[in-house]
């Protein structure tokens, strides 16, 4: 399996699943962070090597044609909004591929965009990605993905790590990395500072916050599809929140052990403040303490809490989590 560093990425929504939507460097660039960690690999569902087939002597029998070629890539993208109300954040197309549906609120002066996960039975959108890596262009169709980490750390920008899978549309081609236009290149990502974390109404001092969407992304092996590979589908998600916070001064303020013992459901949220249209909130109406921290009582100690994000039993139609840009 070959893994190559990803140097440039274009993404565009598909009108029909798996049909190349033709992203262009001028209009569909997605700016990557942390270049060494953005990687691309290509392989097959089945290599059909026939390495255990009987032969006439020593050695192996020649293999059959490999089938179901796929591409997988990892992308780290900064969480930033837009410079104006009419502008859509660059990360929107990646969110769509990860099963998030956007809703726009155009209230003058209070415009905002909200992303929430697709509901059961919905397929979600797909995108075409053109990936530039190792002097080659990989055209990848039917791309869907998952958010593995939305990472906020004190004094740093927020980075969103995503993993995408799709079908490789033909062999890679020789290509020089083009001049890619990034619509929000001049906009600086907000920094984690001055943002409130809320756990069951308690606002702790915090060092880091991590959100994993917990997406289950499956390969659709189908005999009627070309090469036996029909693409990828999102079948479930089980989100988890992890936060590193200062030890609560008294248990009356916040008692994670009691929350774990009683399986109490509580709201949670974190804010990433910035200029208008470049501020974010990540929140959910219902979470349960999945792992209470050790019982440190040193006032300078920090502890890790882990929250399982779940549905709101009082409002089954409510999204289990949302990302809001305003």
Walkthrough of the structure:
- By secondary structure, the chain is mostly beta strands.
- The protein has one domain (2-45, 70-325).
- It is 4% helix and 44% strand.
- The protein is built from two helices and 18 strands.
- It has helices at 92-97, 256-262; strands at 2-13, 39-46, 67-78, 100-105, 112-117, 127-133, 136-153, 159-168, 173-174, 197-199, 206-212, 215-221, 229-237, 240-246, 266-272, 280-291, 302-309, 322-325.
- The strands form two sheets. Strands 1-2-3-8-7-6 form a six-stranded antiparallel β-barrel. Strands 12-13 form a two-stranded antiparallel sheet.
- Strand 4 and strand 5 form a beta hairpin.
- It is globular and about 75 Å long.
- The model has no long low-confidence stretch (mean pLDDT 91).
Key attributes of the depicted protein:
326 residues; mainly beta; 6-stranded antiparallel barrel; single chain; two-stranded antiparallel ribbon
Write down the overall geometry: globular
Mean pLDDT level: 91
Cα-to-Cα separation, first versus last residue: 42 Å
The major pleated sheet works out as: 6 strands, antiparallel, barrel
Number of helices: 2
Q: Unreliable stretches, pLDDT < 50, 5 or more residues?
A: none
Number of strands: 18
Quaternary structure type: single chain
Strand content of the residues, in percent?
35-45%
Q: Round the Cα radius of gyration to an integer and report it.
A: 22 Å
Overview in brief:
It contains 2 helices and 18 strands.
Question: Secondary-structure blueprint of this entry?
Answer:
Layout: E1 2-13, E2 39-46, E3 67-78, H1 92-97, E4 100-105, E5 112-117, E6 127-133, E7 136-153, E8 159-168, E9 173-174, E10 197-199, E11 206-212, E12 215-221, E13 229-237, E14 240-246, H2 256-262, E15 266-272, E16 280-291, E17 302-309, E18 322-325
Antiparallel strand pairs: 1-2, 1-6, 2-3, 3-8, 4-5, 5-18, 6-7, 7-8, 7-9, 7-11, 10-15, 11-14, 12-13, 14-17, 15-16, 16-17, 16-18
